[in-house]
Design brief:
two-stranded antiparallel ribbon; 15% strand; 239 residues; alpha+beta
């Protein structure tokens, strides 16, 4: 970039430098908490409005920053945040609900969590008299903060493994033909049937669980379905 000198002889760039904002100790600690919560440097940078290199620098100086916190005056460490009492109750109940769904092997995605949060907030709001209560929207930003506060993680649901016995299937026609001939069955006594099902309630492929749980094992879809059995008898089909 080309430089120029002003009237006083001071060298300046053609483009004025942007004013540099110095992060406070509390802001750096908040960034470290986000990183320790599982967010990447790029994600934290987008969230706090800083470039990725600055976030990496803060991460590398984590020990120094936390030592500075211990050495800082008491008043400098104290941060008061007044949270919505109704929201605090709703979040605690929501955490218990997620744990209950996990124990019941029912996966829950972000949409289900946000809908449940709105329902719980409305429920506790009618029971608690709070003047000038702010509207709660259960936004994506709130969800990210809730996941960090309650140490949740998002995992892919592991389903049941299904495998067909190819060897038995290949030998069955020959063995069945021998059985029919030996028993003397008539063609009208031979049926071929198969069952199929339409699972109309689609379940999410990912779920939220607490971080102390290593993996989401054994989740099964709801059995809400429509069954159909197709039967064939010597060329005749029946529904």
């Amino acid at each position: 970039m080309a430089d120029r000198r002003d009237l006083s002889g001071r060298r300046t760039s053609l483009h004025e430098k942007r004013e540099r904002k110095v992060l406070s100790l509390y802001e750096k600690l908040k960034i470290l908490d986000l990183l320790n919560g599982g967010m990447s440097c790029a994600e934290v940078g987008r969230r706090v409005g800083k470039n990725e290199s600055s976030i990496r620098s803060i991460k590398q100086k984590q020990a120094e920053i936390r030592q500075s916190l211990c050495a800082a005056p008491t008043m400098a460490k104290r941060v008061s945040v007044v949270r919505d009492k109704v929201l605090v109750k709703a979040e605690k109940a929501l955490s218990l609900w997620i744990e209950d769904m996990s124990q019941k092997h029912v996966p829950v995605d972000s949409r289900m969590i946000r809908e449940k949060a709105l329902s719980l907030y409305e429920h506790f709001g009618t029971m608690t008299e709070t003047p000038e209560r702010k509207a709660f929207m259960a936004s994506k930003g709130w969800l990210a903060s809730f996941v960090n506060r309650y140490n949740l993680k998002n995992l892919r649901v592991t389903g049941e493994a299904a495998s067909a016995d190819q060897e038995s299937a290949s030998t069955f026609p020959h063995e069945f033909r021998i059985l029919v001939g030996r028993k003397g069955y008539l063609p009208e006594q031979v049926y071929n049937c198969d069952e199929t099902a339409l699972f109309w309630k689609k379940m999410p492929r990912r779920t939220y669980i607490h971080k102390d749980a290593r993996q989401a094992m054994g989740f099964k879809a709801f059995k809400d379905r429509l069954n159909a059995c197709f039967v064939r008898q010597c060329g005749w089909a029946y529904d």
